[in-house]
């Protein structure tokens, strides 16, 4: 049974307005970032909203990405073939955490621990899925992230 006294990460963070503020801030910075600018040179004007919807759903918010933007398999496909590097991933993460501070995302250790864990996990999977020859043919249910830990290592295959 779901414990209603514990808010979802989505609720604790401030819902869609907070997520949109975070990703609008992040992607507005990207064109001025020498490491990330080339990666996102062709992103669509709706990119920030789509990523906000995706992360919102992962954090326990409404199923907007699944119902309107193609769900988790589509998100993975956006990364396929891009050969993302560790340097790009690390910079994505650094900039996002900086933006989280700037927009006033909750700073309690519990929230930040869960937030960083998801971002670490998600960005590392994005890099793996983006490598030439990566096998992304399997089932890809929408991840759900809560307050606990990631529960196990990545096992290829
Ligand atoms: C938790 C981590 C991540 C999440 C949740 C995420 C989510 C997404 C989503 C939802 C899209 C589709 C956006 C759309 O529909 O327009 C997307 C596209 C993309 N992502 Fe990610 N992403 C993550 C990490 C990364 C990282 C680390 C990089 C590179 C450093 C990256 C590079 C890209 C690129 C290049 C695209 C396509 C942009 C375009 O349309 O030109 N992503 N991502």
UniProtKB/TrEMBL annotation:
The keyword Repeat does not apply. It comes from the Bacteria. The lineage of its organism: Bacteria, Pseudomonadati, Myxococcota, Myxococcia, Myxococcales. It holds the Pfam family Bac_globin. Gene3D superfamilies: Globins. Keywords: Heme, Iron, Metal-binding, Transport. Transmembrane segments: none annotated. This is Group II truncated hemoglobin.
